[in-house]
Design goal:
The complex is a heterodimer.
Chain A lengths: L16 E16 L2 E16 L3 E5 L6 H8 L7 E10 L11 H7 L4 E4 L3 H4 L6 H13 L3 H14 L16 H13 L5 E5 L7 H18 L2 E5 L3 H7 L2 E6 L2 E7 H6 L4 H8 L38 H5 L5 E4 L2 E3 L2 H5 L4 H13 L4
Parallel strand pairs in A: 3-7, 3-8, 5-6, 6-7
Antiparallel strand pairs in A: 1-2, 1-4, 8-9, 9-11, 10-11
Chain B lengths: L2 E14 L6 E14 L5 E6 L5 H8 L7 E6 L2 E2 L5 H11 E4 L3 H4 L6 H12 L5 H14 L4 H4 L9 H13 L5 E5 L7 H18 L2 E6 L2 H7 L2 E6 L2 E7 H6 L4 H9 L28 H9 L5
Parallel strand pairs in B: 3-8, 3-9, 6-7, 7-8
Antiparallel strand pairs in B: 1-2, 1-4, 4-5, 9-10
Helix pairs in contact in B: 4-5, 4-7, 5-7, 7-8
The chains are: A alpha/beta, B alpha/beta.
């Protein structure tokens, strides 16, 4: 399975989409004392994940990352309701929201699987790991039990886990091993599409690198696609092929990873990258003023404008659309797109402006 | 009494097992270091989970007693602290900052309650105006003000604001040592540096020493003066932070440093190398093909 090289530089490769999300909106709709309240956690998101690709979604806590992936997996429950938009997978014949629960349960784990954050919370603490494998995958693999466990054992070995973990309870395994078990569970049916929600956040650096390497390896071997969500930009730098940056429920920038790190166009992205501490770098790192907005009462216009060093009048009134400024690089920012300058010049001028932000 | 804190060959062991196969497990094994009073510094303890860094912090905070060895704070053995008066006096000088600001504050209590209570107990303020003045002064030091925090519940503040409020609370008694256990790991990326920079300001302006516990080598490099690296309870390497991290000597320190992901390595396939920790090329095993496959992908742009 040779990877189609969908990298930066050679323009938009006509890659084959496996997931296309169009204008997806999902709000938490609640009623307090008869007053309706809406939290716009996912607001008009359009993105596409290609076959054999790791698509990273970056953003802070409460920016809507988890709401987005829950909606994409059709795992949202009230009060999180889908208001509009569509989510289409290439392996499904129609929009995922038009499918019945039963049809969905046939697709889940087999075609669409999910690596969750807290491995301790995912694995049932009173069931041995082998039972969890039966719960997750037995009916999808649809083989006699002995053959099923042969497949499971081979899969575990591929993930460098001894098949003896099947006999263990979750608490008998270390955090890294448990996380590897959840990866094994999510990949045992060789799904086409995997959603990974902060799979390494609770792990320390050495184990984290190990687990990430494993996810990458499994992905490349199976040729599946991953929607990889984390707030850690250094993880994205090394994992993702393409990266989407979320801020306050909206996608503000999207580009191939290398491009976004070398040449961020949105001031928020620029700040995230610039403020990363690195070993060997002692230059002072600035923190962004202000705080992330409250999504039940987001600021008008661009949601980043109260914290933005480049904010102009138009930013307070209108919401910038996500537009492609360069091939494969979309950004939602008036300051980045309004300049009547060749794109090559924007590259040099925008990041320094952020650097000397008024504080 | 020029030493602020002396940690002298401290060991903490826990017993496990039942009747048979009883054993002890050393969470912290023979750790020693000294902080000087005259020279406030950011002293970083780095290690993976289970390396004993939190146990060490809890001993320094006098929450648990060491099995052997002594910890002296300004010449007083922590073991000798008896009675509430002596305890309060100790707490006045050594204050904790915890990992998750959302868990530290009771969600049903207003945040200012903690500030006012600390001011009443430790700063000797009794009148409302005095208490508020103390709280406001402490909040100013962390870049907030009482007007922003007063009457607010924890869910109404961002993670960064809450963590800064927690630091302000710790500053009210006028401590000389802060023990911060993973203070930024739960704080949003855009606000993380505000906390880290704040530590530097506290050291320089208020002359507070800070014990900074983390597994994030990048922020450790950014702010620490001295560093110790712990593995399984043992200090494997210590020294000036930049020197240690620029050129680590112990194999474990080298492994830690190599495991740190950096934006510089975009697309270099560094994750394919995770198994192989420095020593030469990946060994060609039966699985060698699988292990090296990720490296074979050309990643040029």
């Amino acid at each position: 399975m040779v990877k189609a090289n969908g990298k930066a530089g050679n323009g938009p490769v006509p890659a084959e989409p496996i997931l296309s999300v169009r204008n997806l909106r999902a709000y938490y709709q609640m009623q307090y004392f008869g007053i309706d309240r809406e939290v716009r956690a996912v607001d008009d998101i359009t993105l596409q994940v290609n076959r054999n690709e790791i698509y990273g979604v970056a953003g802070e806590s409460s920016c809507g990352k988890t709401s987005l992936i829950k909606t994409i997996a059709a795992a949202n429950r009230p009060p999180l309701n889908v208001i509009g938009g569509s989510v289409k997978y290439s392996f499904l014949d129609r929009d995922i929201f038009r499918m019945s629960e039963e049809e969905l349960s046939r697709v889940r784990w087999k075609h669409l699987s999910y690596i969750m954050q807290g491995s301790m919370n995912v694995l049932n603490p009173v069931r041995r790991i082998r039972k969890s494998f039966i719960d997750f995958a037995f009916r999808h693999i649809n083989k006699p039990e002995r053959e099923f466990f042969d497949i499971v054992a081979r899969h575990l070995e591929r993930l460098r886990l001894s098949p003896s973990v099947l006999k263990a309870y979750p608490h008998e395994l270390s955090g890294g091993m448990r996380q590897r078990v959840t990866i094994a569970l999510a990949t045992i049916c060789r799904p086409e599409f995997i959603i990974a929600d902060e799979p390494t956040t609770a792990l320390d650096v050495v184990v984290q690198k190990d687990v990430l390497a494993m996810i990458r390896e499994v992905q490349q071997e199976m040729g599946s696609s991953i929607l990889f969500v984390t707030h850690d930009m250094t993880v994205h730098a090394n994992m993702a092929d393409r990266l989407g940056i979320m801020y306050a429920g909206r996608l503000v920038e999207e580009a191939p990873t290398r491009e976004i790190f070398a040449n961020p166009l949105h001031p928020y992205t620029a700040h995230l990258i610039q403020s990363l501490p690195r070993i060997g770098d002692l230059s002072p790192k600035k923190a962004l003023p202000g705080a992330p907005p409250n999504l039940s009462d987001p600021p008008a216009g661009c949601r980043f404008h109260p914290r933005c060093p480049l904010a102009m009048d138009i930013c307070r009134r209108e919401n910038p659309a996500l537009t492609a400024l360069r091939p494969g690089h979309r950004v939602a920012c008036f300051a980045a797109s309004s300049e009547v300058r060749p794109v090559s010049e924007i590259r040099e001028t925008v990041p320094p402006k952020v650097a000397e932000a008024r504080s | 009494m020029s030493d602020l804190l002396i940690v002298d060959s401290v060991t903490k062991s826990y017993a496990f097992g039942g009747l048979f196969g009883r054993g002890t497990f050393k969470a912290v094994d023979n750790v020693s270091f000294t902080l000087e009073a005259a020279r406030p510094e950011i002293f970083t303890i780095v290690g993976e989970s289970g390396s004993g860094k939190t146990t060490l912090a809890r001993m320094i905070l006098n929450l648990i007693a060491p099995t052997s060895g002594t910890i002296r704070f300004r010449g007083t053995d922590l073991n000798a602290i008896r009675g509430s008066r002596a305890r309060m006096d100790f707490m006045r000088h050594v204050q904790p900052i915890f990992q998750n600001p959302f868990e530290v504050f009771n969600p049903l209590k207003k945040v200012d309650h903690y500030l006012f209570m600390t001011a009443r107990r430790f700063a000797g303020a009794s009148k409302t105006a005095e208490v508020e003045a103390h709280a406001d002064a402490a909040l100013q030091k962390v870049g907030l003000s009482l007007a922003e925090v007063k009457g607010r519940f924890p869910h109404e503040l961002s993670g960064g604001q809450l963590q800064r409020t927690a630091i302000a609370r710790a500053l009210i008694p006028g401590p000389s040592l802060l023990v911060a256990d993973e203070p930024v790991s739960m704080v949003d990326a855009s606000l993380r540096m505000s906390i880290v920079n704040l530590f530097r300001t506290l050291r320089d302006d208020l002359r507070v020493s800070i014990i900074y516990i983390t597994h994030d080598l990048a922020t450790a490099y950014y702010i620490s003066d001295r560093i110790i690296i712990m593995q399984k309870g043992v200090v494997v390497e210590s020294g000036p932070a930049r020197q240690v991290l620029d050129n680590p000597q112990h194999p474990y320190s080298i492994l830690l440093k190599e495991s740190v992901l950096s934006p510089e390595t975009i697309g270099e396939g560094i994750l394919g190398l995770a198994r192989h920790t420095g020593e030469g090329p990946p060994e060609a095993s039966a699985e060698g093909g699988a292990a090296t496959r990720t490296l074979a992908q050309p990643r040029s742009s």
